[in-house]
Amino acid sequence: MEPITFASALANLSMMAPEIWQAVKETALMLSIGLGAALFVGGPLGIVLYLTQPGQLFAHRGFNAVLGWFVNLVRSFPFIILLVSLGPLTRILVGSTIGPVAAAVPLSFAAIPYFARLVEQTLREIPRGVIEAAEAMGASPLQIITKVLINEARAGLISSLTILTISFLSYSAVAGVVGGGGIGDLAIRYGYYRFQTDVMVGMVLLLVVIVQIIQFIGNRLASRLDKR
Amino acid sequence: MIHLNDVKKRFRRPDGGWFDAVSDTSLSVSAGEIFGLIGFSGAGKSTLLRLINLLERPDAGAVIVDGQDLTQLSGAELRRARQNIGMVFQQFNLLANRTVAENVAFPLEIAGWKREAIRQRVAECLEIVGLTDRAGHYPAQLSGGQKQRVGIARALAPRPHVILADEPTSALDPKTTQSILECLRDINARFGVTIVIVTHEMGVIRSICHRAALLDAGRVVEVINVEAGRVDARSDLARSLLEAA
């Protein structure tokens, strides 16, 4: 095997540009579906977790405990086990267990309870008195959720979403195991199994750059939205 | 305007026992009055105030505001009734991510006012509390006294008949306290809003109240008249509160 030089690595990677671009698109697709599910299912779930806590608007100890237990249950699964054990469900939902859309199913499953907990925790930081003031003004529960809870916690919610995005960028690499594709998968197939170290290093560097960009955007957005 | 008839409220203590915050208390506040609730810590004055807009639901008794028994209302009816009862808090409880103008607009949005009507009413209310030039600021950029003025403007915005003030000056220095009290007195005089104010300071009672109830251990000990800053009281409690002031 020839020694790797910077020039040879660069030539190699540029030759693979179409495949790399394909992998980036697959990763983006997996993440969008997973984060979408987290936002639209995990978000409301987190709000319900928060509102059913003792002392909150819809305090219900039993319901809260059962829901919390269920969330913990899904969160306990190692992701790779969730990935393979959800195969049959994925086949029903997507019609296949291979490809980025199929891999997005277990990703969503893991992302929903994760984001729900992040949302619950973020909402806890809102002072009780602010919610009480809205109640005293005659706000309905829906108005309290949309105008008080989400708006007051918006900076924290953006930070939570940033954390989630970065965690799941890394989870999505594992999805390559079931043919999910993506950047991480490319790194493993070419870099690890075919001993193309330059490809592996190149893909890891690409992920590093993507993570930095996501964190930068998340921080900027959160601090711009935070007026506290 | 406000009638509390034999209201009772008890809370569960951490040790499992019960704490009677308010026991079998009746109280009447007339329209256009500034009525004080005074007592030492734990006397039940805040709980009594919070019974008036049902932030605390009484275990027994009736809460009649503007001729309506609030305890008999459905959720939606209670929300509508609450739009007629403003509230001002010790810790201001402003929305941190909304500007001053947006905070004052908040109760109007809840009540379903039209955009243009909201804009006008917000401008009016900021004018009343003297914060027109701070409309675009966020609460974090304001002093304590300014925050409380926003709180008052917000309570006043939906043209309520009643404003409940829970220790509105206890987080403020003496000079700011005076200006906030003047602001409340001004609103009472100009718009005839009935104000119920909770305090532990006799000075607050003396400076703006027409009458006040002295509370101890969840009961009204005495209702006193205040005239020209003079308190006419008989009970021992009144004397000790006067001495503490």
TrEMBL record, chain A:
Domain ABC transmembrane type-1: 24-218
GO biological process: D-methionine transmembrane transport
Subcellular location(s) per record: Cell membrane
Listed InterPro entries: AA_ABC_Transporter_Permease (IPR051322), MetI-like (IPR000515), MetI-like_sf (IPR035906)
PROSITE patterns per record: ABC_TM1 (PS50928)
Topology class, membrane: Multi-pass membrane protein
Keyword terms, alphabetized: Cell membrane, Membrane, Transmembrane, Transmembrane helix, Transport
This protein's GO CC annotations: plasma membrane
Membrane-traversing stretches: 32-51, 63-86, 92-116, 157-179, 199-218
Keyword Membrane found: yes
UniProt KW Protease keyword: no
Record CDD domains: TM_PBP2
Sequence similarity: Belongs to the binding-protein-dependent transport system permease family. CysTW subfamily.
Protein name: ABC-type methionine transport system, permease component
Lineage of source species: Bacteria, Pseudomonadati, Pseudomonadota, Betaproteobacteria, Neisseriales
TrEMBL record, chain B:
Pfam families linked: ABC_tran
Residue ranges of domain ABC transporter in the record: 2-242
GO biological process: amino acid transport
Keyword annotations of the record: Amino-acid transport, ATP-binding, Cell membrane, Membrane, Nucleotide-binding, Translocase, Transport
Gene3D superfamilies documented for this protein: P-loop containing nucleotide triphosphate hydrolases (3.40.50.300)
Keyword flag GTP-binding: no
GO molecular function terms attached to this record: ATP binding; ATP hydrolysis activity
GO CC, alphabetical: plasma membrane
Lineage: superkingdom: Bacteria
PROSITE patterns: ABC_TRANSPORTER_1, ABC_TRANSPORTER_2
Family: Belongs to the ABC transporter superfamily.
Xref: PANTHER family: AMINO ACID IMPORT ATP-BINDING PROTEIN (PTHR43166), METHIONINE IMPORT ATP-BINDING PROTEIN METN (PTHR43166:SF30)
Stated role: Part of the ABC transporter FtsEX involved in cellular division. Important for assembly or stability of the septal ring.
Name of the protein in question: Cell division ATP-binding protein FtsE
Source organism of this protein record: Gulbenkiania indica
